[in-house]
Design a protein that fits this description.
9 helices, five-stranded antiparallel beta sheet, alpha+beta, 4 domains, 501 residues, 20 strands, TATA-Binding Protein
Length: 501
């Protein structure tokens, strides 16, 4: 009787082989290098192509069509694009497969030396060995050998057989898994990055003193969406994606009670700026807090950082006014953008504008350079008997420059009381704890790999036919064999003394 070969057998035997090759390719070093190259390319795009708020520069450089295509492809927001997430996911899969392929090998190294059948020590070929014959009984020899071995390996495992006995000690077991600890840490860092990209948010909010503002956050909406990318010739390319970001706001509001800034005595540089805020929920105060540089406020998973500050508007301006035909100067504290009467003189004035950092842009023309209180200036309008007579700018740092066109009308500034505003950065990062744990694991793995060396020692005690016993000492180390040789020689000398020469 002859057996007919099964035609499907070759295909069935090939399937595991193909699967095994595919899995090994996922965990291969070539894929790792390729992914790093792609990641570097994407990082270069994110560096050289305008991103975020600078993205509209693409219109000036390349036109509206290029800008629209860049937005749809995610080029103007590289680090939160779907294809950047895909690269991170492939890197995570590569790390998982690298670990999966190599775990059996590490497990075999760490555990095979314990699979001793009490015949001969099953130790690696690269180990150190020494042997002695002693008149002591096996139990006495074992006890003496244990005391010596415990000087280097405090925790010993013992295996007993019908006649032979074995002691096993090991140190720095964690170093065997150092690479995999690093891989796990990197996986957690990648997970933190994906969580930050998908569910994180980074927005800025400006709040004036005495006002409140809601905190903007970005939210993810899942679904199946299709966008179209216009191509030359009237063609279009469909771009499917499974999520999109939509604007939202947090469940609380922030009210700014007071903003305080302090300066160094010898310079105009700020030494401290602080925002005293109130957290409101449903319009009701929940708690008060202060936000300082390097001292953020945590609220509902959102970190509020003190980013910057400035001034916009005035509470009031304090100055002196000399009026035509009047001998005395009038001391005036004028509210911002409110017309006031000047003590029955028939004159009225109003502070209509305020520049915290005035700069000359031309003869008689001022512009505001920034929101910092560096060179304040006020704009004042004057009326007499209801008829506007003149208007002028007064720069506090240049009191001699008088722009009023009415003879005898002069301003002398004293102080301004500006309205401060704070700029808070609202950062939501749900992956921060994964990133911290991942970083700690990477440090632990690197430390274990370079500063801890796995070492192991065995003592096998077996009886001799004529009485007494034979003691065999074996030792193994993965790295730093020169250093371990000195330890092993010291163990051998101590063992020889303990057993009797």
């Amino acid at each position: 009787m002859t057996n007919t070969p099964d035609a499907s057998a070759p295909f069935e035997s090939a399937r595991p082989h193909i699967t095994d090759r595919f899995l090994r390719a996922l965990g291969g070093f070539k894929l790792t290098l390729s992914l790093f190259a792609v990641l570097g390319l994407f990082s270069a795009v994110g560096t050289f192509v305008p991103q975020g708020e600078d993205a509209p520069k693409i219109i000036q450089l390349y036109g509206q069509g290029a800008f629209d295509a860049a937005v749809k492809l995610g080029i103007v927001d590289v680090y939160r694009s779907w294809w950047f997430i895909m690269v991170l996911a492939l890197m995570a899969l590569n790390l998982i497969m690298v670990t999966w392929v190599r775990i059996p090998h590490v497990w075999r190294i760490s555990r095979e030396t314990d699979a001793v059948l009490l015949k001969d020590p099953l130790v690696p070929k690269t180990s150190f060995t020494q042997s002695w014959e002693t008149p002591y009984s096996p139990l006495e020899s074992l006890d003496r050998a244990r005391k010596v071995l415990q000087t280097q390996f405090p925790r010993l495992a013992q295996q007993d057989g019908p006649a032979k006995r074995l002691l096993v000690g090991e140190k720095h077991f964690i170093s065997l898994w150092a690479a995999h600890i690093v891989h796990l840490g990197l996986l957690l860092c990648l997970l933190a990055g994906v969580l930050k990209i998908l569910f994180g948010s980074n927005e800025y909010v400006a709040i004036k003193e005495g006002e409140r503002a809601s905190i903007k956050v970005e939210q993810v909406r899942w679904g199946f969406f299709v966008d179209k990318l216009a191509l030359p010739g009237g063609l279009s390319l469909p771009l499917p994606y499974i999520y999109k970001r939509v604007p939202g706001k947090a469940d609380f509001e922030v009210s700014l009670d007071k903003f305080d800034v302090q300066y160094y005595p010898d310079t105009s540089a700020p030494s401290l700026f602080r925002s005293d805020v109130v957290i409101l929920r449903d319009g009701k105060p929940e708690r008060k807090a202060s936000i300082l540089v390097n001292e953020p406020l945590s609220q509902d998973g959102i970190m509020l950082y003190q980013s910057s500050y400035g001034y916009d508007g005035l509470y009031s301006a304090h100055f002196e006014v000399s009026l035509p035909g009047e001998k005395d100067r009038l001391d005036v504290r004028a509210p911002y953008q409110q017309k006031i009467d000047l003590l029955g003189t028939g004159w009225q004035l109003e502070v209509t504008d305020f520049y915290p950092d005035a700069e000359m842009a031309g003869p008689g023309k001022l512009v505001n350079g920034s929101s910092d209180l560096r060179n304040p200036a006020i704009h004042v309008r004057f009326w007499r008997n209801g008829v506007e007579k003149t208007h002028t700018w007064y720069v506090y740092s240049a009191p001699d420059i008088q722009m009023a066109k009415v003879k005898g009308l002069k301003l002398v500034g004293k102080t301004v009381d500006p309205i401060a505003f704070t700029v808070l950065q609202a950062n939501a990062d749900p992956g921060i704890y994964f990133a911290l744990l991942g970083a700690l694991l990477v440090v632990l793995g690197v430390f274990s790999a370079f500063y801890l060396f796995y070492r192991k020692a065995w003592v096998l005690v077996e009886p001799l036919d004529g009485g007494g016993s034979r003691v065999t000492l074996a030792g193994f180390v993965r790295r730093n064999k020169i250093g371990f040789r000195r330890v092993f020689e010291r163990l051998g000398n101590d063992m020889e003394k303990a057993l009797g020469e």
